[in-house]
Amino acid sequence: MINLTIDGKAIQVEEGKTILQAAQANGIRIPFLCYHPAIKAIGSCRICVVEVKPGPPRPQPACTTRVSEGMEVITNSERIKSIRRELVKFMLVNHPLDCPWCDKGGECELQNLTHELGIAEVDYEAARKPINNDVESPLIERYNTRCVTCGRCVRVCRERVGASAINFENRGYFTDLGSGQQPLNCEFCGTCIEVCPVGALINKLFKYSARSWEMTQSETICQFCGGGCNYQ
Ligand code: FES
């Protein structure tokens, strides 16, 4: 077992765990965006950044940094909050302010982070990326303008579904979500929609039908649908 502290709390975790896993196992919240428990962590968004000691505090991604003996982790210093704030602002530079009609509005991880970090305006400017949305597919609408390039959809499709039907195109600032410039051509299993933290991938049939806070949980014997025959 490894001994470390997170925000001054002494904890013990198994060797090989990441800081994020150690924090979650001990009820300490670290925000994240590209991480998803169902797929491999790649440490690309840096929203999970924390300060790590001993030595001068070093910013490190919690989702990919493994715990080590004697490690001291600070999850929410002013420096860390400032780094997260600037990272989210960079994401918002190219993000449309269409939350009121986006199907993910109110349950969007980017929207939550923006509120949590107190971002009222974005003081960066950059050329807008070309709009390359695709609403032609029968079941999945793809809004590239809302994509934060976290790569969850790309990885889950490759790692869990084994299809690689969706991928990144272009590079750097112009990185885009696509499938060979064509409408999505897949089995429409919807796994990519489930893991998308924003409204970049939308279920065409289900959109606007109910927000998560408008639904109630009910008993069901059916194993195939989330609502159940006695859904009210
Ligand atoms: Fe850790 Fe994105 S959640 S880098």
- For this structure, the quaternary state is single chain
Shape: globular
The distinct ligands, each listed once, are: FE2/S2 (inorganic) cluster
Tell me the CATH topology of the largest domain.
Answer: Alpha-Beta Plaits
Succession of helices and strands: EEHEEEHHEHEEHE
Structural class: alpha+beta
Instruction: State the CATH architecture of the largest domain.
Output: 2-Layer Sandwich
The radius of gyration over CA amounts to 19 Å
Number of strands: 9
Indicate the percent of residues in helices: 10-25%
Mean pLDDT: 87
Beta-strand content estimate:
15-25%
Q: How many domains make up the 3D coordinates?
A: 2
- The rounded distance between the terminal residues' Cα atoms is 48 Å
Number of helices: 5
Largest sheet: 5 strands, mixed
Order of strands side by side in the largest beta sheet? 2-1-5-3-4
Give start-end ranges of low-pLDDT stretches. 223-232
Which CATH class of the largest domain? Alpha Beta
Summarize the structure.
With 232 residues, the chain is an alpha+beta fold. It has 5 helices and 9 strands; from the N terminus they run ββαβββααβαββαβ. The relative contact order is 0.13.
